[in-house]
């Protein structure tokens, strides 16, 4: 069979799979950025499209994020009884038992928590003494330095100094995201969590939307012919397809839901 050449063809192909996993990153993919991380809201229609997909037969839906699980639930407004899997803290946390079991070896330990505590003390002092206009976000397994909205020189200096300081704490992983430097003690990654979910549900096609470096862990793991990997926005990527922004993601999700509904009705 000729491989699909456009995203639409690829989505239509995935829609006909016997078992389908549809997973999406949150910030910058389902939700536009905001200077205040807690003021973020999902783009209109995105969560509704995920709900529509999750209601279809043999279709697994997940929202995957660097956010804490609790924060992700609050921001997506997805209820605990809804059949949509949440994967938080870059794979370290999940609402799904099988994903949690698969990621157990990467769980945060008491030693990791101690490391995070001492790192947090040092980073908090650095930011309050030298970069008070940068903001800090505290998560279960990480501390995040936020620089969105700062003049570029100030942002660069805050990130560079925080990175230097983090490197003096052996065992801390440094993730450079969009206007953020995430300093984490987690050993998990989104790619392992998403592929574990796909295995647990026995899916034959997987679709993933992501925009940032941590989503590349998913893109590089999803290389089967029927996998559809979609990078949102600019920048180099291992994804097979690209869309411009959150609005295009919502449109793609609705198209996928509609094609899968048709496939289910005719099978
Ligand atoms: O994996 P994601 O769902 O993409 O989460 C990655 C990080 O997203 C958040 O930061 C980003 O969104 C903020 C709100 O719009 C924005 O202010 C920041 O500049 C972005 O990088 C979140 O705050 C981080 O904890 C996540 O790791």
From TrEMBL:
UniProt GO MF annotations: metal ion binding; trehalose-phosphatase activity
Keyword Metal-binding belongs to the record: yes
Superkingdom of origin: Bacteria
Keywords attached to this entry: Hydrolase, Magnesium, Metal-binding
Enzyme Commission number: 3.1.3.12
Keyword Nucleotide-binding belongs to the record: no
Catalytic activity: alpha,alpha-trehalose 6-phosphate + H2O = alpha,alpha-trehalose + phosphate
Enzyme class: hydrolase
Annotated metabolic or biological route of this protein: Glycan biosynthesis; trehalose biosynthesis
Cofactor requirement: Mg(2+)
PANTHER family attached to this UniProt entry: TREHALOSE 6-PHOSPHATE PHOSPHATASE
Function of the protein: Removes the phosphate from trehalose 6-phosphate to produce free trehalose.
Family per record: Belongs to the trehalose phosphatase family.
The protein's name: Trehalose 6-phosphate phosphatase
Organism: Intrasporangium calvum (strain ATCC 23552 / DSM 43043 / JCM 3097 / NBRC 12989 / NCIMB 10167 / NRRL B-3866 / 7 KIP)
């Amino acid at each position: 069979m000729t491989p699909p050449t456009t995203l639409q063809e690829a989505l239509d192909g995935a829609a006909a799979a016997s078992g389908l996993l549809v997973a999406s990153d949150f910030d910058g993919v389902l939700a536009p950025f905001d200077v205040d991380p807690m003021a973020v809201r999902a783009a209109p229609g995105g969560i509704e499209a995920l709900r529509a997909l999750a209601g279809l037969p043999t279709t697994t839906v997940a929202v995957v994020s660097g956010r804490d699980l609790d924060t992700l639930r609050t921001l997506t407004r997805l209820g605990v009884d809804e059949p949509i899997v949440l994967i938080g803290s870059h794979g370290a946390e999940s609402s799904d038992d099988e994903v949690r079991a698969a990621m157990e070896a990467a769980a945060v330990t008491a030693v990791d928590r101690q490391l995070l505590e001492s790192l947090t003390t040092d980073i908090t002092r650095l930011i309050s003494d030298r970069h008070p206009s940068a903001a800090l976000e505290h998560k279960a397994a990480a501390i995040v330095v936020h620089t969105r909205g700062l003049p570029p020189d100030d942002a660069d200096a805050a990130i560079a100094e925080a990175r230097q300081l983090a490197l003096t704490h052996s065992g801390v992983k440094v993730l450079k995201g969009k206007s953020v430097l995430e300093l984490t003690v987690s050993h998990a990654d989104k790619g392992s969590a998403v592929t574990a979910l796909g295995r647990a549900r026995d899916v034959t096609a997987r679709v993933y939307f992501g925009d940032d470096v941590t989503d590349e862990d998913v893109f590089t793991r999803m290389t089967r012919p029927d996998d559809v990997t979609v990078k949102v926005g600019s920048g180099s990527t291992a994804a097979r397809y690209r869309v411009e922004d959150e609005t295009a993601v919502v449109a793609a999700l609705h198209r996928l839901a509609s094609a899968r509904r048709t496939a289910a009705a005719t099978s």
